[in-house]
Amino acid sequence: MLIVGPETIFAQKSADAAIEKKIDRLLGKMTLKEKIGQMYQVSGPTRDAAAMQLIREGRVGSVLNVNNREDINRLQRLAVTETRLGIPLIVGRDVIHGYHTIFPIPLGQAATFDPELVKEGARVAAQEASSDGINWTFAPMLDIARDARWGRIAESFGEDPFLASVMGAAMVKGFQTERLSDKGTLAACAKHFIGYGAAEGGRDYNSTNIPERLMRNVYFPSFQAAVQAGAATVMTSFNDNDGVPSTANPFILKKVLRDEWHFDGFVVSDWTSPEEMINHGFAADRKEAALRSVNAGLDMEMVSKCYLNNLEELVKEGKVSISTIDNAVRNILRVKFRLGLFDHPYTDTPSTNPFYTDDNLAKAKKAAVESVVLLKNTNHLLPLTSAVKTVAVIGPLADAQHDQMGTWVFDGENGHTQTPLMAIRKMYGDRVNVLYEQGLAFCRDTNKSRFPQALEAAQKADVVFLFVGEESIMSGEAHSFSNLGFKGAQSELLQELKKSGKPIVMVVMAGRPMTIMKEVAAADATLYVWHPGTMGGPAIADLLFGKEVPSGKLPATFPKESGQIPFFYNHNNTGRPAPENVMTLDRIPLNAGQTSLGNTSYYLDSGNRPWLPFGFGLSYTDFAYGNLQLSSGSMKKTGYVTVSCDLTNNGTLDATEVVQLYVRDIAGSITRPVKELKGFQRIALRSGETKKISFELKAEDLAFYGIDNVKKVEPGDFLIFIGGDSDTKLCQKLIVTE
Ligand code: GLC
After folding, report:
1. CB-based contacts of 580: which residues, under 8 Å, 6+ apart?
2. CA distance 256 to 221
3. Atom of ligand 1 nearest to the CA of 141
4. DSSP 3-state assignment of 51?
5. DSSP bridge partners of 661
6. Which ligand 1 atom sits nearest the alpha carbon of residue 191?
7. For residue 236, with 0-12 CB atoms within 10 Å meaning exposed, 13-18 middle and 19 or more buried, which class applies?
8. Atom 12, ligand 1: which residue's CA is nearest?
9. Alpha-carbon torsion 231, 236, 239, 244, what sign?
10. Would you list the DSSP string of 3-22?
């Protein structure tokens, strides 16, 4: 089941032929200075007289970090009416998970396993942002993140290439629709190309060492899917991979992106990454940085001025050809024409306020509901029954309007955030008596002076809701952690509340998987809500009181300890896979012999299993899988099979399950992962209902880059799995023949 279809916005060559003629005509009139100007993006120019002068001289192609219609129209008027050729600006902004109406962080959106919902969220963001004159967003972020120490896992769609591909393509379509020149669109930007999430040690900006085959099988697919979906731009990543900074890497920017994927939008640097090549030790100075970047295929430089100040000289010295410059400018102009900027450079004042509309808020709430993952629900404590008359709402994140929105929020306004405390009072205050104590002022707070009040509130309540986790600043760019446990005295607060003897529902707001196994064991139920955005409160309230049922699934593995990282489900088997019941530290005999513990791949202190596997998520009901069948036990390498199973809702509540399809290639020309996600479906079942679920699995879905680095299907034995998470054992054998 492949979401990304062959059609692409940029494949309609007939429409493009007219644009290419316009580009040729315009290019023919441009001076070298004007061409180089198109390759320069300036940040926040309205406060910078020199930048405004450069725009007036036609030496700026794009601006970012301007977020209001008046300023943007003023800058466009300057570019269109005061420059010699009147080329409009493309206006970029980080609209990552919403503009004013904030949706869950992308990691939370991934947990919905609902691409249509992700597409809807991008539509809302595009409509709101474009009403202010923004026409380019630096999203979707498509980095594969296998390391939760890396703060930017929050912006990613998690660890799996298939899930990230499906979600990334959906987000591109949501931002761009089927015609980029329509009103209410944003040009998308597939970032950060490439491998940024594999930063050594999970430390942001750090080097990566991804060999080509792994790059092709794991890190490229989500970007290729975005290009196939028509992504207008691509952003290079800060990291050097195997010694080559992405921003000046011709293998990825020319051979892969242009020659193999036929990408015809433009490539922008991430922030000052050209200039940062001096720090990398890859360029001696800004002039060499400009030389290596432009000749590698970087079209536009964001913020730093290596291009602006050196390209003209490099062309005159014959080190950069004019055709290289023309190609870069052509790519940039192509996107501007496709956006319709030459026809409609200015933004009209909307007739109604486009922000926080009821419809937008409803979509944000739906996304927040579907993003929540139920980690534990002892004795079906949730949803609350009418027996509960008093609840104690406690914790630093119960009423945290800023933090609830999560990382990469520039334009969401705190005052519009509806917190869990607000929602429980407003929506359920007629049903239960609501007590509230913060307990801690913020997540890192170690001041326990308010613990007595928190405990007293718990003692008066029938159930305790404890809201803990991470402040929004704890994830996102440059926010890596070596320890993924709760900060401050949050764990102590939980222990204090347990003295009340009352059942505790822990609600965790976080931008990453956290190593909170012990805290979850101590709580009676746990909802993992990521940073759920503007409507997180109403979403959580409806889940707690049973108007909604959790359906989210983990888009990333939750390790027991940060020392287990990197830990991901689609790992190789190794030559010595550990058995199910590995030795534990407490069982190691004294004076143990050298080989007495069995020489297999596991940790003596934390075993060989994570805390929670990719794809995991509970429901208020119980789903049963059975009767897995293949339409045939074998298929040709050009064929397909239908994989089906019966899914039953054995509980008393109607609910939705994310049914997941995995494959395992038993032997290949290279070692293969123990499982790979190849499909998923959200299935709604009424209480007691059984439904046959089917997937069409094409042989081409099993293709991978093998020993010769060519993507193909390799005949052989496979196992086909279906289940509610990546730990599923329900499988059938499939033979793929020539
Ligand atoms: C930042 C980020 C990138 C963002 C850009 C513009 O450094 O790495 O994701 O889009 O700069 O803000």
Report:
1. none
2. 11
3. 9
4. helix
5. 679, 722
6. 9
7. buried
8. 94
9. positive
10. -S-S--GGG-HHHHHHHHHH
Kindly report, residue by residue over 520-556, the tens digit of the pLDDT. 999 999 999 999 999 999 999 999 999 999 999 999 9
What is the tens place of the pLDDT at every residue in 372-420?
999 999 999 999 999 999 999 999 999 999 999 999 999 999 999 999 9
CB 7 within 8 A of CB 177: no
Task: Give me the amino acid identity at 574.
Answer: T
When the pLDDT of each residue in the chain is averaged and rounded to a whole number, the result is 96
CA distance 554 to 605: 24
* Rg of the Cα atoms in the chain: 27
Cβ neighbours of residue 453 closer than 8 Å, sequence gap 6 or more: 437, 439
505 neighbors 523 (Cβ within 8 angstroms) = yes
Other CB atoms within a 10 A radius of the CB of residue 711 amount to: 12
Cα(238) to centroid(ligand 1), Å: 10
Of 450, 520, 528, which is closest to residue 489 (Cα–Cα)? Answer: 450
CA 618 – CA 691 distance, rounded (Å): 19
Q: Which residues line ligand 1 (CB under 6 A)?
A: 94, 138, 191, 270-271, 477
Query: By the 8 A CB rule, do 454 and 464 touch?
Result: no
524/463 Cα distance (integer angstroms)? 10
Comparing CA positions, the residue from 137, 222, 121, 208 lying closest to residue 171 is 121
Of the candidates 85, 143, 518, 496, the residue with the CA atom closest to the CA atom of residue 329: 85
Q: Which protein residue has the closest C-alpha to ligand 1 atom 2?
A: 270
408 Cα to the center of ligand 1, angstroms: 9
SS3 content of the chain, % helix, strand, coil (to 5): 35, 20, 45
What is the value of pTM for the model shown?
A: 0.97
